């Protein structure tokens, strides 16, 4: 087929995505350099770096960056490590495999707002929650998760959502592992641990890359869980960049500062993406 | 123990372990479901009530209080609408990239995926203001447009991975049989990738259904899909856990059941065919 | 008269020159086989004729019409693929009729054509099945049927038998030969298997590194290879190639010094002068094992008994091993010293460029 026809078929996708990227981003860049508050929409003079300064010197800024990264890395760590271990343990035939699969994947389909509400209320409530009941049954003082360990609570909620996804990806990948290879290793005197270390882990390299990459896309943008459960608090203890900017923009109506923050979020995402694409980009395009 | 008994014991242990993990992870959902049939008092009883007389009262009240049907309809329209739109845009692109790859094809694909790395919050203000200026704030149209663009890269990539694995010789055979490019897409490629296209569509629907950033920020009331409706139950005053659970169950049930039927394809799809 | 004419055909990929000026003329009804080692360009040549690859130079003419720039769908050719490439979502009947339906042939006519093809290929009981419910041999027949139904000007086969097991391959080979006799249509067939080439072809085209090495009937290629490449490629076991130390014209005979043994080669004139690096080619069946006083001496390394015949691998003085055909029941032992007679009439000489040295044979 002619080159021009193939281009024509690709054009709508490429043009739309280009527009989706360039138009709002250039507007964000423009807004970030002017004074622009929705309370006072007529006053919008050029202010240079002032919005950035204002956003960066906000006492919430450093905690927000730190929280964003802690959230990302903790959830990645939990889902990948536990995902690999659990999937290796259950990657054998057993009774009711189909049902277990279905149960396992379910949290992945729960919408983030519902996820946060279930955990905030029925699991983590210090008086009536399941966790409180378990603690008191063992004669321990119940923990007020959301007030005392807000970021950890968010990490738990998000991990709960993504761990099943990781397990399922890894189990599916393990099923394609060469059994003859494992048998050969057994004949060579390898123990289960050896097989896990030298055959299973390398075999999972590509699926791990895929899981890390997909999760990163979604984890940098965690928002609804925070909005619904902690509102970023107490203080800024569970505020991430996304929530902070939302706060500036739609609660304080400060478009200029929110845009500056948005750009910083883009920069942060790009730094993460840079390392990520270098690490897994090759794995994805085979 | 003989070797055979050892094997059986191992299988039993594996099963026990797998079931425990699955039940622990599934417990919150099970609990939400159970709670939705309790009275508000039973819902907060300590120790938690396992045996009780189920009631449907909560479901009735949820519909009365927050007009479930309206929000569910919003969810259905936005997720199905944007999925269909995205498929129409993505299929030709994926076809052309998979079967007539050029030197830049890989780069274009990576670039498309990289637009997913652009955090939504970075463009929140422009999108918010554009929607406001064009009267799209709190409309389903705004969500359809945004969801379409949001999922387009993933859909193109997934279809590309499927198309790429179709045996090229079949298309060549069709060409030798006198098929035009149009015949080729309609009579050979599409029928062959029906499974792939539907699982891509399913994934897109799941992602749209559960999308919470844009729906919370752009469609607070009239056009609010279920994600945004549920958020209104987060107010700390009063413990309406039973009603909350009923509302949550209603919001999640369609997509969870949907997901159960196609979980295998979904995992394959979401990993761009990296995991077979 | 030439039916399909290929002139100076070129195919360049980004940094690879796949076809380097192919010239070929094929007469109507001919069974032509392209053969050569992998990467020689035989499949590329077939696919270029089919229009699945575009050429970067030269022309292809079919039945008086230039088809070089024509889309595959308009060339009136049918192709059978190595993987069969059946449409998995269609039944056998739909697979057979797909091309006719695309061409908007009337339904009654489609029915009649499908019926006659399916009867001739014994596909009747399979018509309602999907390809995945068929065995390899059945798929193969459907693929052939799909090509026949269209009554194309030329059939193209791209290694159609290589996915079948050995027994089925022999059977399908016979069926194809019968089919060609019955239909009388021009067929072009690509294979890497020289036995398929020898048994099926009216003429064989041997390709090497994007060029035609030699074209001829199977026997011509076997008896009169014009290069060392062709000589080695055709024939199993391979032709033995022994470097000659010296070769000189004495009286009317060519005396070749082969490992210290002088062999008289009956030729009265050579078409070119000999150099020091002449290679002597001789096929296994043109040598015989004798008790003693043979032309050359050696020691048996290994004997392969094939039942109807045996092949002795014999180590010569200088670490070179040759293969000699022996009678089936010969009681040869490994390590036994043997003497070998060479049928000098059958010797073929190659020069240092691996081309054959033409000789004018002694008059009988």
UniProtKB/TrEMBL annotation, chain A:
Compartments, record wording: Cell membrane
Record flagged with keyword Thylakoid: no
Matches recorded under SUPFAM superfamilies: MetI-like
GO cellular component labels: plasma membrane
Keywords: Cell membrane, Membrane, Transmembrane, Transmembrane helix, Transport
One GO BP: transmembrane transport
Mode of membrane association: Multi-pass membrane protein
Residue ranges occupied by any ABC transmembrane type-1 domain in the UniProt entry: 65-276
InterPro entries: MetI-like, MetI-like_sf
Transmembrane segments: 9-31, 69-90, 102-119, 151-174, 207-229, 249-277
Pfam assignment, any one: BPD_transp_1
PANTHER family in the cross-refs: BLR7065 PROTEIN, INTEGRAL MEMBRANE SUGAR TRANSPORT PROTEIN
Family: Belongs to the binding-protein-dependent transport system permease family.
Protein name per UniProt: Sugar ABC transporter permease
Lineage of the species this protein comes from: Bacteria, Pseudomonadati, Pseudomonadota, Gammaproteobacteria, Oceanospirillales
UniProtKB/TrEMBL annotation, chain B:
Transmembrane spans: 12-34, 76-96, 108-129, 141-163, 184-207, 239-262
Gene Ontology biological-process entries: transmembrane transport
Short name of any one Pfam family annotated for the protein: BPD_transp_1
Record keywords, A-Z: Cell membrane, Membrane, Transmembrane, Transmembrane helix, Transport
One cellular component (GO) term of this entry: plasma membrane
ABC transmembrane type-1 domain mapped to chain residues: 72-262
UniProt xrefs under PROSITE patterns: ABC_TM1
Topology within the bilayer: Multi-pass membrane protein
Claim: Cell membrane is one of the keywords in the record: yes
InterPro entries xref list: BP-dep_ABC_trans_perm, MetI-like, MetI-like_sf
Family under the similarity heading: Belongs to the binding-protein-dependent transport system permease family. MalFG subfamily.
Full protein name: Mannitol ABC transporter permease
Species in which this protein is naturally found: Marinomonas ushuaiensis DSM 15871
TrEMBL record, chain C:
Residues spanning the membrane: none
Short name of one Pfam family: ABC_tran
Domain ABC transporter: 4-234
Assigned keywords, A-Z: ATP-binding, Nucleotide-binding, Sugar transport, Transport
Any one GO molecular function term: ATP binding
GO CC terms, sorted: ATP-binding cassette (ABC) transporter complex, substrate-binding subunit-containing; maltose transport complex
Coiled coil spans: none
UniProt xrefs under CDD domains: ABC_MalK_N
Xref: SUPFAM superfamilies: MOP-like, P-loop containing nucleoside triphosphate hydrolases
Name of the featured protein: Glycerol-3-phosphate ABC transporter ATPase
Species of the source: Marinomonas ushuaiensis DSM 15871
Lineage: Bacteria, Pseudomonadati, Pseudomonadota, Gammaproteobacteria, Oceanospirillales
């Amino acid at each position: 087929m002619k080159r021009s026809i193939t281009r024509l078929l690709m054009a709508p996708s490429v043009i739309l995505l280009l527009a989706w990227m360039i138009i709002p981003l250039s507007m964000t860049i423009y807004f970030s350099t002017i004074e622009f508050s929705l309370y006072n929409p007529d006053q919008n003079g050029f202010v240079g770096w002032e919005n950035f300064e204002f956003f960066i010197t906000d006492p919430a800024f450093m905690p927000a960056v730190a929280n964003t990264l802690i959230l990302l890395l903790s959830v990645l760590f939990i889902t990948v490590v536990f995902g690999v271990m659990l999937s290796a343990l259950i990657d054998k035939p057993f009774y009711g495999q189909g049902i277990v699969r279905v149960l396992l994947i379910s949290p992945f389909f729960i919408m983030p707002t519902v996820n946060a509400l279930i955990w905030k209320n029925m699991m983590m409530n210090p008086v009536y929650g399941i966790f409180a009941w378990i603690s008191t049954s063992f004669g321990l003082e119940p923990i007020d998760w959301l007030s005392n360990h807000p970021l950890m609570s968010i990490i738990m909620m998000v991990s709960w959502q993504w761990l099943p996804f990781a397990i399922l990806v890894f189990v599916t990948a393990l099923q394609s592992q060469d059994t003859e290879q494992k048998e050969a290793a057994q004949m060579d005197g390898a123990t289960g641990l050896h097989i896990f270390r030298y055959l299973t882990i390398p075999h999972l390299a590509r699926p791990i890359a895929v899981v890390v990459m997909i999760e990163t896309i979604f984890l940098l943008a965690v928002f609804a869980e925070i909005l619904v459960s902690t509102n970023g608090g107490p203080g800024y203890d569970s505020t991430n960049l996304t929530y902070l900017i939302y706060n500036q923009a739609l609660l304080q109506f400060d478009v200029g500062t929110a845009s500056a923050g948005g750009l910083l979020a883009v920069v942060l995402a790009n730094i993460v993406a840079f390392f990520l694409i270098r690490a897994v980009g090759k794995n994805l395009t085979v | 123990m003989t070797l055979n008994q050892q094997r059986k014991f191992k299988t039993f242990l594996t099963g026990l372990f797998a079931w425990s993990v699955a039940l622990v992870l599934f417990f919150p959902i099970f609990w939400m479901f159970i709670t939705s049939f309790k009275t508000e008092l039973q819902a907060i009883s300590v120790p938690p009530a396992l045996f009780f007389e189920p009631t449907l009262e909560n479901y009735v009240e949820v519909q009365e209080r927050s007009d479930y049907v309206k929000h569910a309809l919003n969810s259905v329209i936005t997720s199905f609408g944007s999925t269909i739109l995205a498929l129409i845009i993505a299929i030709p692109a994926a076809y052309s990239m998979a079967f007539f790859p050029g030197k830049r094809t890989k780069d274009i694909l990576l670039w498309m995926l990289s637009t997913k790395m652009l955090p939504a919050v970075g463009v929140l203000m422009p999108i918010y203001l554009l929607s406001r200026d064009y009267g799209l704030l709190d409309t389903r149209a705004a969500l359809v447009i945004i969801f379409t663009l949001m999922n387009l890269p993933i859909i193109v990539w997934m279809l590309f991975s499927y198309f790429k694995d179709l045996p090229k010789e079949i298309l060549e055979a069709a060409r030798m049989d006198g098929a035009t490019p149009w015949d080729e897409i309609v009579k050979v490629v599409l029928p062959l990738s029906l499974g792939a296209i539907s699982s891509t569509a399913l994934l897109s629907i799941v992602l749209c259904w559960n999308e919470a950033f844009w729906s919370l920020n752009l469609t607070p009331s009239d056009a609010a899909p279920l994600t945004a409706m549920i958020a209104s139950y987060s107010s700390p005053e009063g413990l309406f856990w039973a009603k909350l659970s009923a509302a949550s169950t209603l919001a999640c049930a369609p997509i969870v059941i949907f997901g159960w039927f196609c979980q295998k394809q979904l995992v394959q799809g979401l990993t761009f065919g990296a995991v077979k | 008269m030439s039916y399909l004419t290929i002139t100076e055909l070129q195919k360049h990929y980004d940094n690879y020159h796949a076809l380097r000026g192919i010239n070929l003329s094929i007469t109507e009804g001919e069974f032509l086989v392209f053969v050569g080692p992998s990467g020689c360009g035989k499949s590329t040549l077939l696919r270029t004729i089919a229009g699945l690859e575009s050429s970067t130079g030269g022309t292809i003419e079919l039945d008086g019409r230039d088809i070089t720039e024509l889309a595959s769908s308009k060339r009136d050719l049918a192709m059978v693929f190595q993987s069969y490439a059946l449409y998995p979502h269609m039944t056998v009947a739909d697979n057979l009729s797909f091309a006719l339906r695309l061409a908007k042939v009337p339904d009654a006519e489609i029915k009649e054509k499908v019926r006659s093809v399916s009867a001739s290929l014994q596909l009747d009981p399979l018509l309602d099945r999907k390809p995945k419910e068929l065995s390899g041999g059945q798929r193969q027949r459907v693929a052939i049927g799909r090509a026949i139904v269209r009554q194309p000007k030329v059939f193209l086969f791209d290694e159609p038998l290589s996915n079948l097991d050995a027994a089925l391959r022999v059977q399908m080979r016979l069926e194809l030969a019968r089919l060609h006799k019955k239909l009388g249509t021009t067929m072009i067939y690509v294979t890497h298997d020289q036995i398929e080439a020898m048994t099926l072809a009216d003429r064989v085209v041997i390709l090497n590194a994007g060029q035609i090495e030699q074209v001829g009937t199977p026997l011509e290629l076997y008896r009169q290879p014009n290069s060392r490449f062709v000589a080695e490629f055709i024939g199993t076991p391979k032709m033995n190639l022994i470097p000659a130390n010296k070769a000189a014209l004495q009286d009317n005979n060519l005396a070749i010094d082969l490992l210290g043994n002088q062999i008289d080669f009956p030729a009265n004139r050579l078409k070119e002068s000999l150099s020091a690096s002449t290679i002597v080619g001789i096929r296994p069946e043109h040598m015989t094992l004798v008790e003693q006083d043979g032309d050359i001496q050696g020691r048996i390394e290994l004997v392969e008994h094939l039942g109807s015949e045996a092949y002795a691998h014999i180590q010569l003085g200088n670490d070179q091993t040759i293969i000699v055909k022996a009678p089936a029941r010969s009681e040869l032992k490994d390590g036994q010293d043997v003497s070998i007679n060479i049928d000098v009439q059958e010797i073929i000489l190659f020069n240092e460029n691996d081309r054959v040295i033409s000789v004018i044979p002694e008059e009988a």
